[in-house]
Amino acid sequence: MPQINENFLKLEKNYLFINIAKKVNAYKAAHPEADIIRMGIGDVTLPIAKCVVEAMKKGADEMGVKETFKGYEDSGAGYYFLREAVSGYYKSFGVDVPAGDIRINDGAKADCGNIVDIFGNDNTVLITDPAYPVYVDTNRMCGRNVIFADSNEKNGFAAMPDDSVNCDLIYLCSPNNPTGSAYTYDQLKEWIAYAKKNNAVIIYDSAYEAFITDENVPRSIYAVEGAKEVAIEMCSLSKTAGFTGMRCGYTVVPSELVVKASDGSEVKLADLWGRRQGSKFNGVSYPVQCAAAAVFTEEGLKQTRENIEYYKNNAKIIGETLDELGIKYTGGKNSPYIWLKCPGNMGSWEFFDLLLEKINVVGTPGAGFGKNGEGWFRLTAFGDKDRTIEAMQRLKTLKF
Ligand code: MLT
To answer: Is 177 in the pocket of ligand 1 (CB under 6 A)?
Structure first.
């Protein structure tokens, strides 16, 4: 009889968004007439830019012609044309990341989980709380010691390092999911200094970088000096270009990132990551990589920018309503997420039920992202503009 990985038995029974979907579906079954507005899961709603779709079609057509047909991509890291396009994208905001340090993936979520393979299970992992559940779950699945850095109202939901705490791996997400807060250059400098002092590695999720507006917020951790020696960065086209249903992103493991093995020898993490991917991942489909490369062309960036501005306008609409109602919130400026304090000292799930039942609006309870999320609630700006306005009008009808 096989032994199971009993760490799974210690996890929450369901992934957060599956729990929410179950609750919403049960409500819908009991109230089929309800006109539900979904502002829960961070899923995009606008169609993919035309030039990106065209590039995907062209890629698909090439697969049907003997001369241009593609089987496996032999480097295993993704087509070089796409890795170069990503490198050029980094350059456009002043960051030098060579194509050779970039590997194409099927979205940041997968790689945030996969990266755990290259680290030993005795590591202590520091995760900011609240956090995207994938970081905690995937480390708990291999039985690692997970500790937390508190992000709360006091520190503007931007946890900072505590010198009295030791750890080996650090997860940071900026702009943050779920809180919408974003680290400044100076704050990231502190994290990098802390990682160096602890010989720790930072796993940096920049999936929401395209939403950054503030000049003092970097689009990549590599915009900060010294980051290449301590940080791995994951990004995705899901939110940048509406790829949630396409699946494509990239992970950067800089060649400068070297750690010591137990025998004292120096190991490049990029080599371990390449080895892991070689054995476990066969890459992203060619037409999708063609589409992804089109995102980084001048026209692609222009068209995808329009979608981001649309979502940012939704965030503004939500923020203005909360201001009017006197409800505290963070996010919405450098992020598609608005993180609000539940009015009347309500708990997160209590507020979730109230919104679902009284105004048929679905959000995400902050408690689902960790203990510091209790009493907070996340709304996404990824919806339709008119529906966002409608949801905010409904919110104004509630008495808190
Ligand atoms: C979220 O709502 O937090 C999203 O689902 C994140 C993701 O893209 O996986």
So the answer is: yes
Atom of ligand 1 nearest to the CA of 238: 8
Q: Which two tokens stand for residue 230?
A: 């301590």
Alpha carbon distance 134, 273 (integer Å): 19
Give bridge partners of residue 102 from the DSSP assignment. 252
* Distance from chain centroid for Cα 32: 33
What are φ and ψ of residue 187, in 5° steps? -65, -40
- What is the pTM for the complete model shown? 0.96
pLDDT at residue 15, as a whole number: 82
- Between CA 310 and CA 302 the distance in angstroms is 13
Per the listing, tokens 């923020």 go with: 319
Amino acid at 34: A
Place of tokens 């209590």: 350
What share of residues in the chain are helix, strand, coil (percent, to 5)? 45, 15, 40
- Domains of the chain by start residue, with CATH: 6-47+300-396 (3.90.1150.10), 50-297 (3.40.640.10)
CA 188 → CA 136, 236, 240, distances in Å? 21, 20, 22
Find the DSSP H helices in 199-254.
237-241
Which mean pLDDT values do the consecutive 10-residue runs of the chain (400 residues) have?
Answer: 94 87 95 96 94 98 98 93 98 97 95 95 97 95 97 97 96 98 98 97 98 97 98 96 97 97 97 96 97 98 96 98 97 97 96 96 96 97 97 94
Angle made by CA atoms 61, 64, 69, in degrees to the nearest 5: 100
Contact predicate 37/383, CB 8 Å: yes
Question: Could you report how far apart the first and last alpha carbons of the chain are, in Å?
Answer: 55
The enclosing H or E element of 310 equals helix 298-325
Cis amide linkage into residue 218, ω under 30° from 0: no
The Å distance, Cα 43 to ligand 1 centre, comes to 7
């291999």: which residue's tokens? 142
How far, in Å, CA of 312 to CA of 93, rounded? 20
Model pLDDT, residue 13: 82
Give yes or no for residue 21 CB within 6 A of ligand 1.
no
Q: Is 42 in the pocket of ligand 1 (CB under 6 A)?
A: yes
Helix (H) or strand (E) holding 136: helix 133-141
In this structure, the residue with its CA closest to atom 1 of ligand 1 is 42
